[in-house]
Design brief:
- The chain is an alpha+beta fold.
- The protein folds into two domains: about 220 residues, no CATH class; about 180 residues, OmpA-like domain (60s Ribosomal Protein L30, Chain: A, 2-Layer Sandwich).
- α1 packs across α2, α3 crosses α4 and α4 packs across α5.
- The N terminus is likely disordered.
């Protein structure tokens, strides 16, 4: 059995299921021996051949070496030694005939940037990349582990080391390294043998660091001096004139969004919501104020201030104002949905614009101490708490360089 071929077919392709335990142990040792790159260091013979015996080879070495430096293509050996290996074992033919080269190394054999591989942070450690197995410069451990974590630089060293190894082996079935791929569904990085017509190298990791900062939650609610209730007052202008439909739902939508966020906080509970819906008794609708006795209007019985003594209609068919009070409350209720049990307080009172309004009153309690009356400070801490913004994820893009062989 050709152990190197089995290594290529199994270790890099995520598993060793075709091997016996003895073969696996032997292959692991061979992988460690091969990928530590001790054998890949360019020999003096190679260096002298390129530097002294061939001007074209030396020129090509300078091009490759500069490319590695400029683009951060790193290996487990120096970029200088890697450049010698790439030139001698890669595009540089072994013959001593200089005349066949001319100056073509200025253009031929260059590595071109083909794309960028976007790597995903590991959920457990955001300084590492999420990989299938754990990748190191000289080995790939637990290749079927879908919760692997690998260092970004170890990852590209592993890929680039493989490319050098394939060049040195020079076999017809050489894979010219491994391709680094990312699952579009999970964001997990994994490997696949590179196209045998292309040598692939990786370098220059572009980091966009995740930003984390504290912001203060804003609130549209009013916090009372004491109690468990928070309030939001809406002017009658949020409704169309003499209609129960909304003309402008901006503030209402903000309030509902805030209540929705509060309802998702497990430390608190919204025990109930009251909707107050008022109509203006001194602005008749259909020629009627909506009060049962016109004399009560003159006597000032139904007022908003100084004491809250409105008239509460029994049905929405009593008057035009009763229809508005009922209908507008129902409109708000339909927007609130099932956030909490809802009670509605319909009323008609004198006051013009001030009487034509709607209000949401939400009762809040602490989950662990429901009997405790919340203070103004307690409610402020709930509504105006600081939150840490961490949803701005970092990105790491690894540049992929390829060069056609042959």
């Amino acid at each position: 059995m050709n152990l190197q071929k089995v290594l290529a077919e199994n270790m890099v392709r995520f598993g060793t299921k075709n091997l016996t335990a003895t073969q696996k142990k032997k292959l692991l040792k061979e992988q460690l021996d091969r990928l530590n790159l001790a054998a890949l260091v360019a020999t003096d013979e190679i260096k002298s051949f390129i530097d002294i015996d061939n001007d074209a080879g030396k020129d090509h070495y300078n091009i490759i070496f500069q490319f590695l430096k400029d683009n951060g293509v790193i290996f487990s050996i120096t970029q200088s030694d890697a450049a010698y290996i790439i030139v001698y074992h890669g595009t540089y033919p072994r013959q001593h005939d200089r005349t066949i080269y001319g100056g073509k190394y200025e253009t031929d054999g260059k590595f071109n940037l083909t794309d960028r591989v976007k790597l995903m942070d590991s959920p457990e450690d955001t300084t590492k990349v999420y990989t299938q197995g754990n990748v190191f410069p000289d080995r790939f451990e637990n290749p079927k582990d879908r919760n692997g974590q690998s260092d970004y630089f170890d990852l590209i060293k592993y890929c680039n080391n493989h490319a050098l190894l394939d060049l040195i082996e020079g076999s017809e079935n050489s894979r010219n390294g491994v391709s680094l791929l990312v699952s579009p569904k999970t964001g997990m990085a994994y490997f696949s043998p590179a196209d045998n017509a292309v040598t692939t190298l990786y370098g220059t990791i572009d980091f966009t660091v995740a930003k984390s900062n504290q912001v203060v939650n804003t609130t549209v609610f009013t916090i009372p001096a004491v109690g468990k209730a928070i309030e939001k007052l809406f002017p009658g202008s949020i409704f169309a004139t003499n209609e129960i439909t909304l003309a402008d739902s901006t503030e209402l939508d903000k309030a509902i969004a805030e209540l929705t966020t509060l309802s998702q906080d497990k430390t608190i509970k919204i025990t109930g919501i009251t909707i107050q819906s008022g109509a203006s008794g001194d602005r008749s609708v259909g020629g009627k104020s909506g009060y049962p006795k016109e004399s009560d209007v003159a006597a000032g019985t139904y007022t908003l201030t100084p004491s809250f003594k409105p008239y509460r209609p029994k049905t929405p068919t009593e008057s035009g104002n009763a229809r508005l009070a009922y209908g507008r409350a129902k409109t708000i209720q339909s927007k609130l949905g099932t956030l909490a049990p809802i009670t509605i307080d319909y009323h008609i009172a004198n006051g013009g614009d001030a009487a034509q309004y709607a209000k949401i009153i939400a009762n809040i309690e602490k989950t662990d101490s429901p009997a405790t009356t919340l203070t103004k400070q307690d409610l402020e801490n709930i509504l105006l708490q600081k939150k840490q913004v961490t949803d701005l994820s970092s990105t790491k893009n690894v540049k992929r360089f390829t060069r056609k062989n042959g």
